[in-house]
TrEMBL record:
The name this protein goes by in its record: ABC transporter permease
Superkingdom of the source species: Bacteria
Membrane topology: Multi-pass membrane protein
Main localization (coarse): membrane
Organism classification: Bacteria, Bacillati, Bacillota, Bacilli, Bacillales
Transmembrane parts of this sequence: 16-33, 62-82, 91-110, 130-150, 171-196, 208-229, 236-254, 260-278
InterPro entries linked to this entry: ABC_transp_permease
Keyword set, alphabetical order: Cell membrane, Membrane, Transmembrane, Transmembrane helix
Organism encoding this protein: Marinicrinis lubricantis
The keyword Kinase belongs to this UniProt entry's keyword annotation: no
Location in or out of the cell: Cell membrane
């Protein structure tokens, strides 16, 4: 029993760290920019496809992975341009780009599946016993770089664009540029995650990005619900930990012989639970505060009546 849980934990941490890049990308678009970007389902596969094709053509896995990151940035930039310059609704912009990327990804790979067995990959360079530690350090470095970026002038403008675009425009900031920059960086991180996941599992598949936006949202929401979001540093750390927790929940479900066909249903239920628990908790706290105020008012009114009665006497 303990060994099974330990194996599930180790596997979930490894996968959670790989998907943490994707969760950070979703955090940028959904939480910072308030932009419901469905490009994620396509750009995740784009990163995997570009990296796989470059590696099978003899390129270094590091160059291939960086190429996947750049391809994701390009996809995100197009989504941003469709919304800002084409004046297309943000949700529809992401849907259109997601659909377009399906054909683009197929064209990149030339087939529905590109195997990487026998290829040198970043994952193959790392000893299996050290994979968690190495990936953990890489993810923390990426998280700290994102924290630093969000505190720069451009990053502050990015955050202000999501909070109050009218206000930031009044200070002379071009919100079109900040939106394109943010969505580009978001999808670059998503594609980076796709490139690493493809190397971890040994192949890039045309369908591997399906439902990825829900997984990213689940990671973000779980992290925020469990670990809070008071500061940028704490929130990005919560997102990374949320990706690991989400993978651990799925690993436990599989460990107890849950039908894999129900994995998407479990994901949806996790998101629903993570969304409703904070609201229920807030409602309970508000009721407690209201009850405490009621008791204080009753006590004050009682004291006033007693004092008034004393005066009349």
């Amino acid at each position: 029993m303990f060994d099974a849980l330990l194996n599930a934990f180790n596997g979930s941490v490894e996968q959670g760290l790989l998907y943490a890049f994707m969760a950070l990308g979703v955090y940028i678009s959904f939480r910072i920019l308030d932009f419901p970007d469905l490009t994620v389902d396509g750009s995740f596969t784009t990163g995997a496809a570009v990296a796989a094709v470059l590696m099978t053509n003899g390129y270094s896995p590091y160059i291939a992975t960086f190429g996947g990151f750049l391809a994701g940035c390009a996809a995100g930039a197009v989504t941003g341009l469709l919304h800002t310059k084409g004046k297309i609704n943000n949700l529809l912009s992401g849907i259109l780009m997601m659909i377009a990327l399906y054909s683009i990804n197929l064209k990149i790979m030339g087939q529905a599946n590109t195997p990487l067995f026998g290829q040198d990959t970043i994952i193959s360079y790392i000893p299996e016993s050290a994979l968690i530690w190495v990936m953990g350090v890489v993810v923390i470095i990426a998280k700290l770089l994102l924290d630093w970026f969000l505190h720069t002038e451009v990053g502050m403008a990015l955050r202000a664009t999501g909070d109050n675009p009218k206000m930031i425009r009044s200070f002379g900031v071009n919100t079109d540029t900040t939106i394109i920059t943010g969505i580009s960086l978001s999808n670059g991180l998503v594609a980076l995650s796709g490139a690493l996941v493809a190397q971890y599992q040994g192949f890039a598949d045309l369908q591997m990005g399906v439902g990825m936006i829900v997984i990213g949202l689940a990671s973000v929401i779980i992290g925020e619900a469990l670990f809070g979001l008071k500061t940028v540093f704490r929130t990005t750390l919560a997102v990374v930990l949320g990706a690991i927790v989400y993978r651990f929940v799925l690993a436990l479900a599989l460990e107890y012989n849950m039908d894999p066909a129900y994995m998407k249903l479990i994901t949806a239920l996790i998101v629903i639970i993570a969304l409703t628990i904070p609201r229920i908790r807030k409602s309970i706290q508000q009721k407690k505060v209201a009850a405490e105020r009621g008791r204080q008012l009753s006590s004050t009114a009682g004291d006033s009546i007693q004092k008034g009665g004393g005066i009349r006497a």
